[in-house]
Amino acid sequence: MRPPATTRAERRPRPLPELAHRAAFAGVSLLPPRPQAAVLRRYFDWWHRRSDPWGIASDAYERYKHHATLRLVPRRPYRRILDVGCSEGVFTRLVAAAYPDADVTGVDISERALARARRAAPRLTFVRSDLLGYDRPGAFDLVFCAEMLYYLGREDRLALASARLVRLLAPHGLLVLVHPWPESDDLHRHVAADAAVDRVAEHVDHTVHRPFAVAVYRRRANPGTGDAAAALTAGR
Ligand SMILES: C[S@@+](CC[C@H](N)C(=O)[O-])C[C@H]1O[C@@H](n2cnc3c(N)ncnc32)[C@H](O)[C@@H]1O
Fold first, then answer.
1. By the 8 A CB rule, do 11 and 101 touch?
2. Measured in angstroms, how far is the CA atom of residue 222 from the centroid of ligand 1?
3. Residues 160-185: tens digit of each pLDDT
4. Host domain of residue 131
């Protein structure tokens, strides 16, 4: 199921539609966090007016990426797992199947997406929330956040979101970030700079038409204060 290969040398300028997409979300992030969340909620409910709007359930590339993500996670028992920006729960269900003894929760800003997620997996927990408003400090020993951080927009929101993600982790808990490469270098940099976590693995897949990075960070038992934690304090 490998999509057609490209090489690292084929690193291309970012396509115009992608740049316009990022600029639009940066514009929304000029609003304060609550109005920003309100706009995102309406937008993603509208986007989910039809099921599986990104083709996540059917697309070979998405399936390939989901399996590559799971492969990079150290195999050990996890008790509480969170999937942030879970949409209709396609990856959330894969995680639940891989870790059948864990409590698995999906969070998304779109109620319409979550209604479908709940219908497909009634035993899993799905919570409607904006990432910036979801505060369960130390509640999870494994957190996924895939294909989501580019919606946060400008730098301070990305820093705030990164701090939120780190804060969700229990001591020694793992945070797994999955985003298109090379944009992932920017999107992951606040987490990477956070003294509360260490990066334990990273895999960049250049073999696909849309290269992606999977990065795994582990929370320290006695976290220091890094950029992301400082952003969270400043953002309160
Ligand atoms: C492209 S989908 C990614 C789905 C899934 N993570 C995957 O990779 O297969 C992005 C999801 O993030 C959600 N989202 C966007 N901004 C969010 C925010 N601030 N808080 C929570 N969810 C958000 C959207 O509603 C959408 O369902």
1. no
2. 30
3. 999 999 999 999 999 999 999 999 99
4. 12-235
